[in-house]
Amino acid sequence: MKKQKVIVFLPAYNEEESIGDVIKGIPRDFHYKVEVHVLVIDDGSSDQTVRIAKESGADYVVSFEENQGLGAAVRAGIKECYKRGADIAVMIDADGEYPAKQIPELLEPIFLGEADYTMGSRFLGTINGMKIHRRLGNYCFTLLQSLLLKKWIYDGQSGMRAFSRQALEHAEIIHDYNYAQVITLNLVRKGFRVQEIPIKYQVRSTGESFITFRGYLSTVLPAILKEMKRPVQKVKINYSAHVINQRSVAKHDVMTGKYESKLSAK
Questions:
Q1: Residue 8 domain-assigned?
Q2: CB-based burial of residue 235 (10 Å sphere; 0-12 exposed, 13-18 middle, 19+ buried)?
Q3: With a cut of 70, which residues of the chain have pLDDT below it?
C-alpha cells in the first residue's frame, strides 16, 4: 500500500525563538504507512525564522514579502499542502503552545474513517496558564459557533487542526485576519465531519500572538456573519479515503499522559 503523505504546516511570523524546537518535535515515523513532511508559511518575518526552520528540518518554506495576516498564512498553507500532494494536512502553531507530539492523535480519527477534519481541544484537555480574558473570549466565540452550527464545539479557536484531502480542496477562508471560526463553519456546512481531540496546552513563552480581542470583535464577527450568509453546496465525501487499519484499544488520557493508539502499526 502506498504511504499516505501528511504535510504539517506552520504559519510563522517572527518565531525564531520557538520554531526550531516545534519542528524537531514533530513525529515523523509513527506509522509505517505514513510519511510526514514539514512546510513553513513565513508571513513576512524580519528575524531568523526561515533560516532556523530550514536548519531544523523543514522540507518546504513559502515566504510572503510582507506580513499578510494569519488567515492569509493558513489559506496559503492549505493551498500549498493540496498542491504538493498531501493526503492529509496538519496545522500547528510555530510558537510551541500546541503539542506537536500529539499530532498522531489528531490524525487518528481521519485514519479510522471517523472524521474528515479534526481540532485539538484545550478545553477537553488542559488550559493551565491561559489568561482569563482569553478563556472568556474563547468561550463566547465558541458558543456562537456552536449555536450557528447546531453542533457543540469545545474549542473553536484552536491552532492545531488536521484536514483530509477533500477538506483541503473545499476549505475556504474569507478574510485575512484569522481563520478559526470561518473555516469550521465553512467545512461543517459542507458536510465534513469534525471531531475534537484533547490536547495539552502550554502558554507561549516567546513571540507575540497574531490575534487580539479587539481584532476579533471588529474583524471576525463580520466575517462570521458573511460566511453564514454565503450559500454552500454539500460535498460528496469519500469517508474511507484515508483509512489505514483499526483495532479497539484504549484511547489517550490527556490528564495522565497514557495513550494506546487504535491504529495497528503492524
A1: yes
A2: middle
A3: 1, 128-135, 137, 139, 203-218, 245-266
Q: Count CB atoms within 10 A of the CB of residue 146.
A: 14
Indicate the number of domains in the chain.
1
**Phi, psi (rounded to 5 degrees) for 6:** -105, 125
Answer whether residue 239 is part of any domain: no
Helix (H), strand (E), coil (C) string for 50-119: HHHHHHCCCCEEEECCCCCCHHHHHHHHHHHHHHCCCCEEEECCCCCCCCHHHHHHHHHHHHCCCCCEEE
Q: Are strands 60-63 and 34-42 parallel, antiparallel or unpaired?
A: parallel
The whole-model pTM stands at 0.86
C-alpha span between 209 and 161 (Å, rounded): 18
The boundaries of the domain holding residue 85 are 4-229
User: Hey, what's the cell of 76?
Assistant: 496559503
